[in-house]
Amino acid sequence: MQTLVLATNNAGKLQELLALFPDKDVRPQSDFFSEQAEETGLSFIENALLKARFAAQKTGLPAIADDSGIEVSALNGEPGIYSARYAGVDASDTQNLYKLLEAMHEVPDDQRQASYYCAMVCVRHANDPTPLIGLGRWQGELLRQPKGDGGFGYDPIFYLPDYGCSAAEIDAQLKNQISHRAQALQALVAQLA
Fold it and tell me: How many other C-beta atoms are found inside a 10 Å radius of the C-beta of residue 151?
């Protein structure tokens, strides 16, 4: 099988996505180049497509990219596509998480619904006119304090009522089966088949 480039420099995403492709020749973009695509899109799909096209252009190989984030109902979908830079361009996961907790400080427990959203795109080449797109949404609620030390991003405050724990406390193998990223990948793989 031809090599696929995984268009991300995010260590957490890279670890999750490589675990989801155990039998494929998938290589991170850092094996080829260090630049980042500019995320100038206004949606998760647009940003994923920008990243996939950028990686395909830089390598000449098919590329997969995702754009994901957390949407909070009480905040009209924020931070959304700005999840990774919610507290500023160079903000850490911890800074982003605490900014969200601050924004939600006065929101009652019964209004703390949130969902992780993921758009995953596969392009055969940089100018692919028919990219494949898989979408995933993972429903949860926001905790008032972080719990757990697994995962990354907002996982410590993303509570999963069906499992009674945060996304940072859930088993990594289970997360790779039920998360927004896993759902988007499953939708993408179904199209590739």
Answer: 21
CA–CA distance, 52 with 46 (Å, rounded to integer)? 10
Q: What is the mean pLDDT of each run of 10 residues along the chain (193 residues)?
A: 81 73 82 93 97 97 95 97 94 96 97 97 96 97 96 95 97 91 90 77
Of 67, 109, 128, 171, which one is the catalytic site residue?
67
| CA-based max dimension of the chain | 52
Domains of the chain: 4-192 (3.90.950.10)
φ/ψ of residue 73, rounded to 5: -55, -45
pTM for this one?
0.90
CB-based contacts of 165, cutoff 8 Å, min separation 6? 147, 148, 159
Question: What 3-state DSSP class applies to 135?
Answer: strand
Beta-ladder partners of 67: 119
Task: Report angle CA 39, 43, 148 to the nearest 5 degrees.
Answer: 80
Active site includes 67? yes
